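Justification of computing resources. Each target in the renewal requires a structure prediction run like the one illustrated here; the chain below, 272 residues long, is used simply to show the kind of job we budget for.
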Amino acid sequence: MLELLRRFRRPILVFVMILAALLLYSANLRRQGASTFFERSVLQLTAPLHKGLDIVSKGAADIWAHYRWLVDTERENIALIEQNRKLQAELDRLAEVRLANERLRKLLDFKEDVQIPTLPAQVISEDASSWFRTVVIDKGAGDGLIEGMPVVVAEGVVGRTIRVAANQSTVLLITDASSAIAALVQDNRTRGVCRGEGTQLSLDFALRRAEIEIGDRIVTSGTGGVFPKGLVIGRVKQVSKGDYGLFQSVSVTPDVDFSRLEEVLVLLREGP
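Resulting structure tokens:
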């Protein structure tokens, strides 16, 4: 303690002298009206101290006000971020509803054009293996479905039901290697059989002399007892006649985007 007093004796002495002067000045103020030379000297000596204290107090007040502003701003930012997140989620939901309405509107228009009893269904899963290309829909025997019923969307043919349970059914896509559809070229009526090749189709047994061009539309021919006549299958992507043979090689791109199947229509029976 003594060592501490010896080290800071000069600042302590100055502080004690200033404090004593302030006390004496305060006592003199209560006894007389006019300022003495001593009082004026004390005021002059303590003026820097008063000024410093005033600057410190104002600085502390500014720092506190800035801190409060930062705290309030952070709270507002958190509230705005949360509000923005909710609004974005609502926008995403509305966008999904809009897209679903557009798909359903197309299906409804297609249903009116086909003039065949149909049953709407939702795609609930797809086959993840490389052996088969199938999807599962949420309608089955309890809804009137049987094996072999055509499944379509507004863009064209999807496939046919191959396994039917009480509340769901498996649909074999037209791109599966075991799928075959009696088809014809819409413009020149060239007949053939559309077979699946994974992601594409081939039009087999198209006569070599038939004039088939890239972009020609391929539709169902109505023969075979499964698909009604005139349903869109796809468009010609490539044609190769070769040097010999009775038939030409025709590659077809399906009009349906099978990676985005969500709602489909099952045709319950063929038209007349």
